[in-house]
Write a structure and sequence with these properties.
3 helices, 19 strands, UDP N-Acetylglucosamine Acyltransferase, domain 1, alpha/beta, 19% helix, single chain, flat, five-stranded parallel sheet
């Protein structure tokens, strides 16, 4: 017999403390300053992210159309690039190594739900993208996944498991096809 979902319990559950709630409201109010900034204003967007607690290295480029939830969970090393309309659903920490690229429409998702709980409680796990890695266009990286150094997650690939250093992952579910040097 299938377990019924307890929608009322899910909606009543307190997912965040009061401080986090306030920070989320403030981020939403400041979002237009980020989103409506002209594309070449990389430094302005980095300044806004840092003002909200993100750790951001030198030479980072985040496109204005990138969607970021809870920037205080971001750790972006030097020369990271976050592409057009990328989604960084940072309910937990997202760490992106030096010179790594997250291409347009890619989705890094640190949150999910406990399917064994009728209330579908929120679960989170950090994501780690290694130095010199590339998460290609429209790819998805799930909670708790590590993309290795110099690894490539191909366009529209779906990663729910680790992608080792210098490997290429393609498809849904992700298949590890090769190592590159």
């Amino acid at each position: 017999m299938t377990q019924r979902v307890d929608v009322a319990a899910n909606r009543a559950a307190r997912k965040y403390d009061a401080l986090t709630q306030v920070k989320r409201v403030l981020w939403a109010l400041c979002w237009p300053l980020f989103r409506l900034s002209p594309r070449p204003m990389w430094g302005w967007r980095v300044w806004i992210l840092r003002a909200f607690g993100a750790q951001v290295g030198r030479g980072v480029h985040v496109y204005p159309s990138a969607r970021i939830t809870m920037p205080w969970h971001l750790r972006l090393a030097d020369e990271v690039a976050i592409g057009d309309r990328a989604i960084l659903y940072a309910l937990d920490v997202i760490t992106i190594g030096a010179r790594a690229t997250v291409s347009q429409y890619a989705h890094l998702c640190t949150g999910s739900h406990d399917l064994g709980d009728p209330a579908r409680a929120l679960k989170t796990a950090p994501i780690m993208i290694g130095a010199d890695a590339w998460v290609c266009a429209d790819a998805f990286v799930g909670p708790g996944v590590q993309i290795g150094k110099s690894a490539v997650l191909g366009a529209r690939a779906v990663a729910f498991k680790a992608l080792p250093d210098r490997c290429v992952g393609i498809g849904n579910p992700m298949q590890i096809r090769s190592r590159h040097d």
